[in-house]
Amino acid sequence: xxxxxxxxxxxxxxxxxxxxxxxxxxxxxxxxxxxxxxxxxxxxxxxxxxxxxxxxxxxxxxxxxxxxxxxxxxxxxxxxxxxxxxxxxxxxxxxxxxxxxxxxxxxxxxxxxxxxxxxxxxxxxxxxxxxxxxxxxxxxxxxxxxxxxxxxxxxxxxxxxxxx
Length: 164
Description:
Number of strands: 7
Low-confidence stretches: 154-164
Largest sheet: 7 strands, antiparallel
CATH class: Alpha Beta
CATH architecture: 2-Layer Sandwich
Mean pLDDT: 90
Strand content: 35-45%
Shape: globular
Helix content: 25-40%
Radius of gyration: 17 Å
CATH superfamily: START domain
Order of helices and strands: EHHEEEEEEH
Structural class: alpha+beta
Number of helices: 3
Number of domains: 1
């Protein structure tokens, strides 16, 4: 079993990152590179929980998402072609006094077959760099998306002001 811990400080609020993390619409791969659209299937989504299958490159997992705690999002693997046992992800959020947010992620990978055991071993050694890059890319992509949304709101506000 491998546990990889990642950290990033961002200008996003926990709510903004959670909104990106729980956006299961088309184009999810732009935010999360390991979640290709052709693997994505939302079995159920409620206001604070979701049951989703996602993956890429021949690896998939079904995850239960729980974001009922505004300081933590827990993704529990319920089925996968390579992961089993205690596999999943936990995102923890800490607001900082300067308005930024610390995001800490724990990724647990427990291989359930030979392919999973090999991938788990790779993650223990060189894979952390790959997971760190994917996590950094997700934070960057959600920051860019958030800025784009803010600009859209400003443009809409300016149009309303001019039209008024």
